[in-house]
Amino acid sequence: MRVIETGVYRGPHFYSHTPMVRIRLDLGALEAWPSDRLLGFNDALLAMLPGLGQHGCSFNEPGGLVRRLRDGTWLGHVAEHVAIELQCLAGSPVTRGKTRSVKGHEGVYDILYAYREEAVGLLAGRLALELVDSLLPLDMRGVQGLDRIAEDEQADLTEADSPFDMPAALDRLARLVRSTALGPTTRSLVEEAERRGIPVMRLDEHSLVQLGWGKHQQRLRASITGRTSHIAVENASDKDLTRALLTQAGVPVPKGSVVRDAEAAVREAERLGFPVVTKPLDGNHGRGVSTGLTTADEIRRGFAEAARHGRRVVVEQHVRGRDHRILVVGGEVVAVAERVPAHVVGDGRRSVAELIEEANRDPRRGEGHEKVMTRIVVDEQVLGLLARTGFSLDAVPHAGRVVQLRETANLSTGGTAIDRTDEIHPENAAIARRAALAVGLDVAGIDFLAPDIGQPVRETGGGIVEVNAAPGFRMHLEPSEGRPRDVARPVLDILFPRGETGRIPVLAVTGTNGKSTTVRMVAHILRRSGLRVGYTTTSGIYVDDALVSGGDASGPKSARTVLRDPTVEAAVLETARGGMLREGLGFNRCDVGTVLNVAADHLGLKGVDTLEDLARVKSIVAEAVHRDGHSVLNADDPLVAEMERHAGGRTVYFSLRGGADMPDFLRRHVGGGLLAVVRETNPHGGEIVVHDDRRRLPLMGAAEIPATLGGMAEFNVQNALAAVAMTYAQGVPLPVIRGALVGFTNSFEQNPGRLNVFDGHGFRVIVDYAHNPAGLSALCDLAWKLRSGYRRSIGMVSIPGDRREKDIREMGRIAAAGVFDELVFRERPDGRGRADGEVMRLLSEGAQEAGFPPERIHCIHDEAEAAIACLRMARPGDLVVLTPSSVEEIWQQVVGFDPTASPPVAEVAATAWG
């Protein structure tokens, strides 16, 4: 077997809306060996992973995968299920997966499966292939390219014929889960957000998470929210200040003070009266806390322990009672748990060490915060407490004897939790609420000691010993005993009240040509409607028309940059095929998804070989539209119009064929009261008309939009139709749309590299990023319409080298189709796999095949030199059309060109193709 490539989809993608890992696997000779032909394979596999017996596979019922194995299935499909099962066993449960053969490549499969943590998913894929390989006959073993999936520090130490070490593999995965997965508190908040349809974006490798998008986002780290006051957190971290604030608020707290040395601690204890507690001033998780101290020596030891965790130490009265954690959210008590310190109960037979080992076998216990409870770790504090209570690890306690292992009841040190939410007395709840408000925390964990939480603490004795910022939710979500509490819900109620989802309008645009112009038109309209707009194009990321980051920004990473911006009120995202194929969309759903057109470009790359394949990729955007949104589709492109069958939301068509020319399906659409935007032809370039709810709403003449060059640039008329449909569907009033489009021009500042016109040298220059046959054809159509007004025309043309040879030659033929008198072909800055000069050669061959005179073909490698050559050839009354890669650089050349310094035409002609 050989791994060809690996991909990670982080958003909706070609295969699913679920984030997935993709492994492209070449089975090679193993294509002839499905699972039923491999003697003993199925039984060995199920023995190693008995959980596979519950996988439903295509039968959607337990045992479905076993049936497939017995009947015979390919090893790629087996690896998919193994990767899923390994993740589940490691504590990262997932269910979805699929394996598909790769068209045109026999024995090659795309293995796809879901993941929760990206690194865990990748390692699971590698281990799955290693496991499957280990079950094959020796002469069939050996997987190549595993490093394409995940690095393995043990790879060089593993023999090809060694058995698969399942415990070690699961241990590696589990450790990776612990280091990368969200903790229980953050995870509960994320899952609650997802249930509400609130977008979630993880911002770092730890627990910093963004809920919502743009202006409406909220950020949190565990239970610290974006609304948590920094002052309140500082208050809570200073235990002495907390006690003072609570005392001023009339809340019962133990008396105490801060000391700086052990002897001062002894003196303070004598003043307060024994027993006392010592703890670090700014500690947490019970670290360095010693309770029930009754002698000077114990206090000195307690001071030393606390001083290990903080420079200053608190000595305070010991409050007797059971340890409770009261969770207060938004000034309301939402959960109460009684915390029981780590302990074991004797049985008269086993030692303390054996009892601890037995307690740690409880499947609910894990490392750190990964499970309901934490394993009990024997350390100096445990040994010290055992010694003080007359025990050791070897001691065998009597049956029923409780052996205390920790003084504090923190879950992180092995404690357990019992839900007491329904038992708290209203007066105690009121005290807890008052404490949270006094400190200023929106989410607070109140450590409340009371003999009986169901009785008023002012009568029974007790009080608050700490107020904690960033309280953990684990004890409430999954108590050791009692009813679990949904404590994430009230936090989300604070952050997103009244059913808010934290979303901003997201409008996504895809298609072969016209994406950038349409995005800019839509952004322009939305700004005129009063919104702060973030948008992405192939020329950069913009927020409120200010460039945030230059370069091609049409992928998912750039989309996420816009959605993370806290000032953005609407996002308009150019969504190119490359990013969708590489990692899916940068958002999970959109309000408007627009597909402009599907034309031959990038075919033969990444498994996209036909126009139908390309249409399937583009349709991802329309399928990501949510049920209340709008899919805006080009009715004039059959491949796009057909996407209506799978598109999300309500379909909106746009078309250049309005009025009497309207196709039947579009006429039925409009007749049914559905939304469409069309151009109705007239002698003045046509009129843009909106059809909505059986109403005909004239908007404006196409020629009124400067970007259409008086209606002659039909591709920009089409882009304007799409922009009108998108913004009208979003509720922008027609007068606002019209006013915005009247102000949308072809200037470089407003729409760089898209039909930019410069008339400053006595001849006209058009700069346009036409980089494929369809784009160049549209540009040449416009040049032909303009041709009669100019003496002659000169064109600079190129195409990326990773396009098919026939596409490159087609570019040459289109350029030679009677529009230009002189042609300059150039290379792209990046040959993209082709030999130097090969693109120019193929373009020239295509042009000559179309009958273009070879003496008027000029091949100049460098783009800047090619552009200058075109400008030098031009004379007053000429038209120069430049199609650059480096748009800004070439535009600056055009603007700064000095026609008086132009050399004779003969010098340029000398560069003609040999």
Automatic annotation (TrEMBL):
Alphabetized UniProt keyword annotations: ATP-binding, Ligase, Nucleotide-binding
Pfam families named in the record: Cyanophycin_syn, Mur_ligase_C, Mur_ligase_M, RimK
Catalytic activity line of the entry: [L-4-(L-arginin-2-N-yl)aspartate](n) + L-aspartate + ATP = [L-4-(L-arginin-2-N-yl)aspartate](n)-L-aspartate + ADP + phosphate + H(+); [L-4-(L-arginin-2-N-yl)aspartate](n)-L-aspartate + L-arginine + ATP = [L-4-(L-arginin-2-N-yl)aspartate](n+1) + ADP + phosphate + H(+)
Alphabetical list of PROSITE patterns matching this protein: ATP_GRASP, FOLYLPOLYGLU_SYNT_1
SUPFAM superfamilies the record matches: Glutathione synthetase ATP-binding domain-like, MurD-like peptide ligases, catalytic domain, MurD-like peptide ligases, peptide-binding domain
Catalytic class of the enzyme: ligase
Claim: Nucleotide-binding is one of the keywords in the record: yes
Family of this protein: In the C-terminal section; belongs to the MurCDEF family.
Function: Catalyzes the ATP-dependent polymerization of arginine and aspartate to multi-L-arginyl-poly-L-aspartic acid (cyanophycin; a water-insoluble reserve polymer).
Binding partners and assembly: Homodimer.
Protein name listed in UniProt: Cyanophycin synthetase
Organism listed in the record: Siccirubricoccus deserti
